[in-house]
TrEMBL record, chains A, B:
PANTHER family, A to Z: RECOMBINATION PROTEIN RECR (PTHR30446:SF0)
PROSITE patterns cross-referenced by the UniProt entry: RECR, TOPRIM
GO biological process, one term: DNA recombination
Entry similarity comment: Belongs to the RecR family.
CDD domains membership: TOPRIM_recR
A Pfam cross-reference name: RecR_C
NCBIfam families in the record: recR (TIGR00615)
Domain Toprim: 81-176
UniProt protein name: Recombination protein RecR
InterPro entries per record: DNA_Rcmb_RecR, Rcmb_RecR, Rcmb_RecR_Znf, TOPRIM_dom, TOPRIM_RecR
Functional summary from the UniProt entry: May play a role in DNA repair. It seems to be involved in an RecBC-independent recombinational process of DNA repair. It may act with RecF and RecO.
Keywords: DNA damage, DNA recombination, DNA repair, Metal-binding, Zinc, Zinc-finger
Length: 199, 199
């Protein structure tokens, strides 16, 4: 609008690109940053860089971590014979909140979705196969969201894994169909885990 | 929850402290940052620092700018005899959007609010007095929000300025009482500017 303050405009643009942030919110956030104490703003900027630089996928389960092998995969008290396959790191957190699951995880980082051009090759399926071929795994729990993509991915994986001699199970439909795992409450999620059935 | 990724947790905390961002949104934003291309994340961090470092108050009108004297104060085509007094830089932008006001501004950076412990000394009132004492100003338009604090600030300032021999006016009540200047549409704002009256 005639007189623009470039550093402010650019910051507003960055906030606007974040998911769920509109034009008005982006402005409010940018002005908030201007009024932050200098150290707070510096720390905020550093945290963005740190998160982007230091966090990567665990060499085993592909969950996000800031160490080579994530704390869950390194934990010797956890049952390495059961692998719970999920779509995203947020889903791992949801299961950890139940405090009832003692196996390990495998994070696919997505679901098969032909509509969005995402095929099996874009997911971390090869890494899952490698873990099972290495032996010591007796059960794989398909814990993808109960949506079309989640079901399709679970079916695809179960066909791929069964020939390898592992038991493949699916979360029980305690979770509401069409819903989102990340928002399920602890009890529902635990029931779904208990009532899992062979596919 | 047992296994935390420190850089991620800290980034989530930063987002949570922003206005209007809840726990769930903060998580979503942080995960979004993790998935950003590296250059995007670096640019985002740099923009936060840049905005905080390069933007300061204009030496004359106290509006935010990245140069010594803001483009509005430096613009010789603008009418320096009329000063529009506003609460915040966002209000200046709202007036500029009308494209009808050709005077200059003075940004108070707040309103008198005894409830929140904000007195006249915490606002940029001394700087306004200095501009008027320097001469060449014939009218001061009180364009604070039509709220209790906005009215109180306008009254306080008008009593302070009238003895200096300037005409002090107030925006017409074309703007809805109790509303917020920043969200007024251009036409309403222009009507309010046209119908201003002496106080």
């Amino acid at each position: 609008m005639g007189y623009q303050i470039l550093p402010l405009t650019r910051l507003i643009e960055h906030f606007e690109r974040l998911p769920g942030i509109g034009k008005k919110s982006a402005q409010r956030l940018a002005y908030h940053v201007l009024n932050m104490p200098r150290e707070k703003a510096e720390d905020f900027a550093r945290c963005i860089l740190d998160a982007r630089e230091k966090i990567h996928r665990c060499a085993v389960c592909q969950n996000l971590t800031d160490v080579e092998k994530c704390p869950i995969c390194s934990d010797e008290t956890r049952d390495g014979t059961t692998i719970c396959v999920v779509e995203s790191p947020q889903d791992v957190q949801a299961f950890e909140r139940t405090r009832e699951y003692n196996g390990v995880y495998h994070v696919l980082h997505g679901l098969i979705s032909p509509m969005n051009g995402i095929g099996p090759d874009q997911l971390y399926i090869k890494e899952l196969l490698k873990r099972i071929q290495a032996g010591g795994v007796s059960e794989v729990i398909m814990a993808t969201n109960p949506t079309v993509e989640g079901e399709a991915t679970a079916m695809y994986l179960s066909r791929l894994l069964k020939p390898l001699g592992v038991r493949v199970t699916r979360l029980a439909y305690g979770i509401p169909v069409g819903g989102n795992l990340e928002y399920a409450d602890e009890v529902t999620l635990y029931r779904a885990l208990e009532g899992r059935s062979e596919i």
